[in-house]
Amino acid sequence: MSKASEYPMRGALRVHEADNVTTTIADIAPGTTLFAGSDLRAAVAVGRGHKIALAPIARGAAVIKYGFPIGVATADIAPGEHVHSHNLATVLSSDGDYRYAPPAARAAPTAMPSRTFAGYVRSDGRVGTRNEIWILPTVGCVGNLAARVARIAGERHAERINGVHAFKHPFGCSQLGDDLGHTRALLAALAQHPNAGGVLIVGLGCESNQLGALVDHIPADRRAHIRTLSAQAVEDDEAACLALVDELVAACADAPRTDVPLEKLVLGVKCGGSDGLSGLTANPLVGRMADAVAAAGGKVVLTEIPEIFGAEQMLMDRAVSRAVFDETAALVRDFKQYFIRHGEPVSENPSPGNIAGGITTLEEKSLGAVQKGGQVPLVDVRRYGEEAALPGLTLLEAPGNDAVSSTALTAAGATIILFTTGRGTPLGFPAPTLKIASNSALAARKTGWIDFDAGAVLDAGFDAAADALLELVTATASGKPTKAEVNEERDIAIWKSGVTL
Questions:
Q1: CATH class of domain segment(s) 1-89
Q2: What are the angstrom distances between the C-alpha of 252 and each of 42, 65, 249, 336, 450?
Q3: Is 339 exposed, middle or buried (0-12, 13-18, 19+ CB in 10 A)?
Q4: Where would I find the SAF domain in this sequence (predicted)?
Q5: For the structural domain made of 132-254, what CATH number should be given?
Q6: 285-335 pLDDT, tens digit each
Q7: Rounded to an integer, what distance in angstroms lies between the CA atom of residue 389 and that of residue 399?
């Protein structure tokens, strides 16, 4: 988290001493004094999470938040004026002139008490936070079959395992090249996930995504808990699937939960429906969780590459080696070229909901988003469908789309996902997903969606909120259901990046 405000807080928060804007923490009426002991007043009504100028900003001058430029003023801005889309514009381009600096001494992450959680220790030493049966269709044609089997088997085995879940998707047929490769790699990675005590992969038989080729993507020593079935090859496909699920349940139902150190957790971090407070409350609070897991020797996975555009140098400065720096730069450049190939500007973000919540430019959104990585050194870069391999922070290739990126986090091995939001969303994913509200109003209004109120940091401070969130993270890893799990929100989305026949 950037240096906190030097002013006593009243209605707004200055994130860094270099900032020339402040962010409102509540709806502000015209004439409201923004800070105790200051004469600065809001010139107009401003909503929560929006920016107000602290000093005169000339047209063409940089607007500074988090201590970094978030764009340039398109008009002269007086102190107290609202700073948003009408007078602030991005300067983000497709260019990337990145600089490498050898690793230097870094500030130590904030110390937190050591924790354990009760997880399922798998034969290869990985630890799951759930003991479930997952049914993965190779192709959309058998998605409903998979869902029907999951429903029947889930009722049949409700007392023996944590659940039976089918993850439908529309792909696997008529795909070519890298596009087919993405689907295959993603499903193969999910099939190896430690939260699945057993996996049934169901194929149709005639699809591009053939069962045999998919299974070949799974290491031989990770196939013992996997069964496969081609629906066209059997007379009663439903009965055959149920028999295989029964077999899988019998093999894993007696697995015990065991106390393990926090280093066995793989933490995925994600933001969606962000607002102007996300980078001040929820994201840095999740950064504390990343620090705690990494300090214990665990893995943290950060993705949403288009939502680090404008803040990528901050991550690159944390690379542990020149090789990791080069891989990070290559990944960011590749993603920018992906936009350019499709005729889209790299700054085609933030979303309408982000803008309504006070975020103006992609630079601002990205500088807030990278707070989720805390102070953890960047140790590795993984491409889409690959598994995080090293303790520390891994940067994962995936787009910003909530469902696609959260599925990719799960495929990378995340056994729990921390999902921050300023606007709210009901979505859930294969790994338990905790929804963390950036503001208390959202947490109070959407109690059926939100698991934790990060708006509390504005009153209780980060230390108290971090202790409470870490307690919830370990309880969830030990079996406490998330709101998304209670609501049966469990879905996947695969990145469609190529030609369909």
A1: mainly beta
A2: 61, 51, 5, 44, 31
A3: middle
A4: 19-89
A5: 3.40.50
A6: 999 999 999 999 999 999 999 999 989 998 999 999 999 999 999 999 999
A7: 20
